[in-house]
């Protein structure tokens, strides 16, 4: 008994000074170092990247600092109740960073403009719930619908499909061996949950401890220092925005024969954009699986496709036509928003995007929404009345 009591006293004697030291260090770092709790991203055991519910902070991409506020449902913008308001039409919007619009106020995103435009036309009102998450493709968007969006019982589910990277994201997830929504893989093993808890705990420490943030930052700097010393290729910088703009591919893998566009196999065009690629095979299956789940949830699926800033010049029309033909054949309502921006002169086109970033700014979101509102209004009138 005495020996056990002695061990307890020793533990307390060592723990209290250690905790006191940590508290003093925490106070010191907060007093003399700029502490910014900015982690709004969490890890989901199935989807991977997601937003942390009830958090606010910022994300930085291409030197653009974006202040983010996440609601209780883990979505950006205002919160919507899961239970529907009787008579009000509900739209679920799935997409990537162009859809989530992290750098734009919720009311100014195309989802917010849609809601305003459509509510002015529909007496009972319209809700547009934005389930977009940056860095995702159709793979994770199918998972998002299965796990979260379908609970809101939307009348219409809209996929905002971006030609910039959605196909690439889909094939990357497929090849990485991630949990596949095509196989209904949603059961999470215990070790996966443990891994996610560890990652989210690290996020919590970053958000709540200046000492942890300071230590982790210095560790990262030290790691980069040694990599620069011993790994020569580490110093190779990725192409800047202007370099990408000047050197973007001219898509010369298209040639005209008998007034028809065909693929020229001798040139350098990225095969991902053509329907005979593995990426498109996965993407088609994901869209059809999503259509099935949406219909089982008593809703309708629609697809609006568009491009990123780099793709509105010299982009071939063949993949666009192939995509529209596929959606038409499967009875999926679709709208090509690519046409809005491709017709703009260079100076006017750039005014729709964030400088040095490539995502829509408020002007781009408003133009995107205004151009496609009529398409959604027709679908609502067809289904509602």
Account of the protein in words:
With about 375 residues, the chain is α/β, with parallel strands linked by helices. The chain has a domain at about 40-190 and about 275-385: SGNH hydrolase (Rossmann fold). The protein contains 13 helices and eleven strands. A five-stranded parallel sheet has the order 6-5-7-10-11, with helices on both faces. Strands 1-2 form a two-stranded antiparallel ribbon. Helix 1 (about 1-30) crosses helix 7 (about 210-230), helix 4 packs parallel to helix 9 (about 280-295) and helix 6 (about 190-210) packs across helix 7 (about 210-230). The radius of gyration is 24 Å and the shape is globular. The model is unreliable at about 240-260 and about 260-270 (pLDDT under 50).
Question: How are the elements arranged and paired?
Answer:
Layout: H1 2-32, E1 41-44, E2 48-51, E3 56-61, E4 64-69, E5 89-94, H2 97-100, H3 110-121, E6 126-130, H4 138-147, E7 156-162, H5 166-175, H6 190-208, H7 210-230, H8 241-247, E8 254-257, E9 260-263, H9 278-296, E10 300-306, H10 318-329, E11 333-336, H11 338-342, H12 346-350, H13 362-384
Parallel strand pairs: 5-6, 5-7, 7-10, 10-11
Antiparallel strand pairs: 1-2, 3-4, 8-9
Helix pairs in contact: 1-7, 3-13, 4-9, 5-9, 6-7
CATH class designation of the domain at 41-191 and 275-384? Alpha Beta
What spatial form do the alpha-carbon principal axes imply? globular
Give Rg in angstroms: 24 Å
Count of individual helical segments: 13
Q: Give the SSE string.
A: HEEEEEHHEHEHHHHEEHEHEHHH
Fourth-level CATH superfamily of the domain at 41-191 and 275-384: SGNH hydrolase
Number of strands: 11
Structural class from helices and strands? Answer: alpha/beta
- Order of strands across the biggest sheet? 6-5-7-10-11
| Uncertain runs | 238-259, 261-269
Query: What is the fold named in CATH at topology level of the domain at 41-191 and 275-384?
Result: Rossmann fold
Please give the CATH architecture of the domain at 41-191 and 275-384: 3-Layer(aba) Sandwich
Please give the share of residues in helix.
40-55%
Estimate what percentage of residues fall within beta strands. 5-15%
The whole-number mean of residue pLDDT values reads 82
Largest sheet: 5 strands, parallel
């Amino acid at each position: 008994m005495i020996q056990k009591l002695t061990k307890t006293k020793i533990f307390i004697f060592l723990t209290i000074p250690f905790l006191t030291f940590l508290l003093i260090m925490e106070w010191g770092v907060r007093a003399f170092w700029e502490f910014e709790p900015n982690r709004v991203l969490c890890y989901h055991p199935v989807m991977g990247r997601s937003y942390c519910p009830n958090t606010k902070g910022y994300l930085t991409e291409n030197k653009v600092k974006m202040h983010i506020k996440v609601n209780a449902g883990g979505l950006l913008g205002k919160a919507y109740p899961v239970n529907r308001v009787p008579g009000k039409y509900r739209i679920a919007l799935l997409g990537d960073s162009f859809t989530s619009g992290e750098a734009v106020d919720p009311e100014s995103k195309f989802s917010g403009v849609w809601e305003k435009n459509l509510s002015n036309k529909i007496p009972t009102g319209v809700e547009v719930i934005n389930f977009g998450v940056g860095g995702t493709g159709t793979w994770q968007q199918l998972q998002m619908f299965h796990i979260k969006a379908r609970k809101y019982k939307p009348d219409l589910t809209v996929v905002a499909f971006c030609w910039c990277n959605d196909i690439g994201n889909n094939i990357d997830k497929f090849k990485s061996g991630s949990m596949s929504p095509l196989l209904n893989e949603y059961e999470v093993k215990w070790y996966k949950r443990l891994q996610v808890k560890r990652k989210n705990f690290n996020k919590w420490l970053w958000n709540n401890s200046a000492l942890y943030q300071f230590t982790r930052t210095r560790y990262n700097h030290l790691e980069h220092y040694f990599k620069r010393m011993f790994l020569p290729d580490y110093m190779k910088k990725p192409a800047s925005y202007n370099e990408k703009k000047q050197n973007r591919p001219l898509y010369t893998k298209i040639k005209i024969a008998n007034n028809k566009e065909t693929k020229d196999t001798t040139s350098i065009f990225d095969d991902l954009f053509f329907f005979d690629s593995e990426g498109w095979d996965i993407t088609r299956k994901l869209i059809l699986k999503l259509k099935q789940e949406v219909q089982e949830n008593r809703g309708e699926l629609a697809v609006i496709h568009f491009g990123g800033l780099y793709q509105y010049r010299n982009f071939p029309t063949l993949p666009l036509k192939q995509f529209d033909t596929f959606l038409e054949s499967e009875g999926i309502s679709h709208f090509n928003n690519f046409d809005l921006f491709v017709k703009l002169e260079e100076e006017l086109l750039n005014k729709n995007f964030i400088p040095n970033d490539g995502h829509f700014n408020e002007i781009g979101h408003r133009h995107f929404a205004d151009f496609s509102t009529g398409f959604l209004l027709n679908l609502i009138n067809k289904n509602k009345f």
